[in-house]
Design goal:
single chain; alpha+beta; Glutaredoxin; four-stranded mixed β-sheet
Length: 131
């Protein structure tokens, strides 16, 4: 098994495949970075519940929970699977949403100081992008 993983890793490096291109999806992503202790999360979550309504079939909504070390480790794995490992590398902030187009490129953000209408406008633009 270990030998297979080494061979596969070498093949990926040799062919120049990167995780961002490998992570293309049918839907764009809205990735919330959150924690139980996060003050901004408590402000943004109710707004997101309203803003997300009606976009469920057009955008994939993901929450990366970084409340503690165990959840952070799981969230880092999930971010890597989505082709967005940089979201949780080094120092990062909680309580915001990163908007990612179908090609894996970050194209915007939702912040706690935005209105629900502003969030919906950004989500509509994300859903309508043809990348």
């Amino acid at each position: 098994m270990k030998r297979i993983l080494i061979v596969l890793s070498a093949l990926l490096l040799a062919t120049g495949v990167n995780t961002a291109s490998a992570a293309k999806t049918d839907k764009p992503l809205a990735i919330l970075i959150a924690a139980d202790w996060c003050y901004n999360c408590k402000i943004i979550k109710p707004k997101l519940q309203q803003a997300y309504q009606g976009f469920e079939n057009r955008i994939e909504f993901v929450t990366l929970d970084v409340t503690d070390d165990a959840r952070l480790q799981k969230a880092q794995q999930q971010a890597a699977q989505l082709g967005q490992p940089q979201l949780l590398q080094g120092q990062f902030a909680t309580g915001w949403v990163d908007l990612i187009d179908r090609s894996g490129k970050p194209v915007g953000e939702l912040k706690q100081d935005m209105s629900v209408a502003q969030m919906r406008t950004a989500l509509e633009a994300l859903a309508d992008r043809r990348d």
